[in-house]
UniProtKB/TrEMBL annotation, chain A:
Protein's job: Accessory subunit of the mitochondrial membrane respiratory chain NADH dehydrogenase (Complex I), that is believed not to be involved in catalysis. Complex I functions in the transfer of electrons from NADH to the respiratory chain. The immediate electron acceptor for the enzyme is believed to be ubiquinone.
Keyword RNA-binding applies: no
Keywords tagged on the record: Electron transport, Membrane, Mitochondrion, Mitochondrion inner membrane, Respiratory chain, Transit peptide, Transmembrane, Transmembrane helix, Transport
Bilayer topology term: Single-pass membrane protein
Protein name: NADH dehydrogenase [ubiquinone] 1 beta subcomplex subunit 5, mitochondrial
Compartment(s) where it occurs, according to its Swiss-Prot or TrEMBL record: Mitochondrion inner membrane
From TrEMBL, chain B:
Membrane topology: Peripheral membrane protein
Annotated compartments: Mitochondrion inner membrane
Pfam families: NDUFB10
Family statement drawn from the similarity comment of this UniProt entry: Belongs to the complex I NDUFB10 subunit family.
Native species: Lottia gigantea (Giant owl limpet)
Name of this chain's protein: NADH dehydrogenase [ubiquinone] 1 beta subcomplex subunit 10
Length: 192, 166
């Protein structure tokens, strides 16, 4: 209760100090762009008016952030690979030893990729071989098909592979049976 | 190649040109020898090897329907082509360096290397010349066949009618 009675004049004073209403400036008011009379504040200081630096500063922040976002991890990986692990040494293949597929590369990052991500040289070789064989077999089959077609066209002695040889009497009998079955039903109206 | 000369025998200009390397590469050499090599000295350095390819039958030894043999012959052909191209480059570089180093004496000092290079380039062109990038071993084989037939027919013609140069 005593606090409440003291609070009101404190609030009044802070309000007047912050937001002075009779054309005067308070602490929280925006500065008005108008000419001000220069006061000699201890001789030489000035109130400098300048445009905002917000856009420029935020641009610089963005540039730094997005470059470091990639540079730092990549730089750490490269530093570890080159300074700690190091490049591989060239040496002769020992007798009776078959090197692994990633042991044919010098750089540590190259070795890692070859080991965990890419297919080995031998696997790639076999993939290409299989593609080549498939295409060559298709070529041979296409050649043969074209030759067969041209011969059939030329000689006209082959009934092609859609023809099924059949009995004519059987067809006639089947047609008669069908007509007998549906004799009473008027299914089609033909124009006379 | 110019011979190795002791630094004390060089003139100031040549010594300055050699010391220029210290300015451009000095910090890097210092960094590598004093900081990185001790860091990596305690571990077993990884090893890498050069790939060894076995010789497989060439294209003329393959049957017509043996696609595996043809594919391997083609791969071998491309590997040999790359090696031959690099050999030509080395010879060409040596001839150029000889010319540059000898200057006025090039006529009689560089004859051997130049002859070697010309012969090698001619042979390379006979084997691989005028074949495009997408050529394969079959194109090269056919080129050889056409060349041999041409030479045979030319001989027969010249035996009959005499050569053009006479």
């Amino acid at each position: 209760m005593a606090g409440m009675s003291l609070l009101r004049p404190v609030l009044q004073r802070t309000f007047r100090a912050g937001f002075k209403l009779n054309g005067q400036n308070g602490i929280f008011s925006l500065p008005k762009l108008q000419t001000i009379s220069v006061r000699s504040m201890a001789g030489k200081a000035k109130i400098v008016r300048h445009h905002t630096q917000f856009e420029w500063q935020s641009f610089k922040d963005d540039v730094w952030f997005w470059t470091m976002f990639w540079l730092v991890p990549v730089g750490l990986i490269m530093g570890y690979a080159n300074f700690v692990v190091g490049q591989a040494e060239l040496s002769d293949i020992p007798e009776g030893y078959e090197p692994k597929h990633y042991e044919y590369y010098k750089g540590p990052i190259e070795r890692w990729f070859s080991k965990y991500i890419y297919d080995s040289y031998e696997y790639d070789y076999h993939k290409k071989m299989i593609e080549h064989i498939d295409e060559m077999e298709k070529l041979a089959l296409r050649d043969r098909e074209e030759k067969v077609k041209s011969l059939m066209l030329k000689k006209q002695d082959c009934k092609s592979w859609y023809y099924y040889p059949g009995d004519l009497q059987e067809t006639v009998r089947a047609r008669q049976g069908h007509d007998e079955q549906y004799a009473g039903i008027n299914t089609i109206r033909m124009r006379k | 190649m110019p011979p190795n000369i002791e630094p004390t025998q060089l003139k100031p200009r040549e010594r300055a040109m050699q010391n220029f390397k210290l300015i451009t590469e000095g910090p890097i050499i210092f960094f590598k020898e004093n900081i990185i090599n001790p860091l990596q000295a305690h571990i077993d350095r990884p090893k890498y090897y050069h790939r060894r390819f076995q010789r497989v039958p060439t294209f003329d030894q393959c049957y017509e329907n043996d696609y595996i043999c043809q594919f391997e012959a083609n791969e071998q052909y491309h590997r040999d082509r790359v090696i031959d191209t690099k050999i030509i480059r080395i010879l060409r570089r040596r001839a150029k360096e000889c010319l540059f180093y000898e200057g006025p004496n090039a006529d009689h000092r560089c004859k051997h290397i130049q002859e070697t290079y010309e012969d090698a380039a001619t042979n390379w062109f006979i084997k691989y010349g005028d074949l495009t990038v997408h050529s394969n071993v079959r194109d090269a084989y056919m080129k050889q066949k056409h060349r041999l037939i041409f030479e045979r027919r030319k001989q027969e013609y010249e035996a009959k009618h005499g050569s053009n140069t006479e």
